[in-house]
Amino acid sequence: MMGSTALTALVPLAAAGLAAVVLAPPAPAPAASAPAAPAAWAWPLEPPRVVRGFDDVARYAAGHRGVDLAAAPGQPVRAVAAGQVSFAGRVAGRGVVVVVHDDGLRTTYEPVEAGVAAGARVVAGGPLGSVAPAPAHCVTTCLHLGLRDGEVYLDPSSRLRAPAPVLLPLGRP
């Protein structure tokens, strides 16, 4: 769009029979799109019910570096996102599965009776195994889901979609 100053300068040229070439200002470059937000991960259990959340604690301090989800023994456990199984075995007597995801983050699932082997490629929502009965970590059987970026522990619920609300009968907390 031309300003009034440019238009005023063109009128005498046209009256003199001269042609004028008007250069338009360059079109603005398309705005760079913001980097895409990380895709939300899927819960490893259905329905998801968090019984203990993440404690953000100092590196060597005691704390809870993950989330615990209410579970039933034998309940299927699924990968929260696509990746490669880097470990499937026992640690301190409990079954553990570790998945390194395509974005470099690492999730751990325990206690799990592994249905996959180290080196296996898994898709988001793909089966990892089933919840093993091990109430030592929680009061009842639960699945512990951990998340790390290198050596830094992160809150896995920050990447997970909020569970759908559940309506309870009146009089129930």
From TrEMBL:
Q: What PANTHER family does the annotation carry?
A: L-ALA--D-GLU ENDOPEPTIDASE, PEPTIDASE-RELATED
Q: Look up and give the organism this protein is from.
A: Kineococcus rhizosphaerae
Q: Where is the signal peptide?
A: 1-31
**Designated name of the protein:** Peptidase M23-like protein
Q: Does the keyword Signal apply?
A: yes
Name the source's superkingdom: Bacteria
Any one Gene Ontology MF annotation carried by this entry is:
metalloendopeptidase activity
Alphabetic keyword roster: Signal
Q: Is Cell membrane found in the keyword set?
A: no
- Which residue intervals define the domain M23ase beta-sheet core in the entry? 63-156
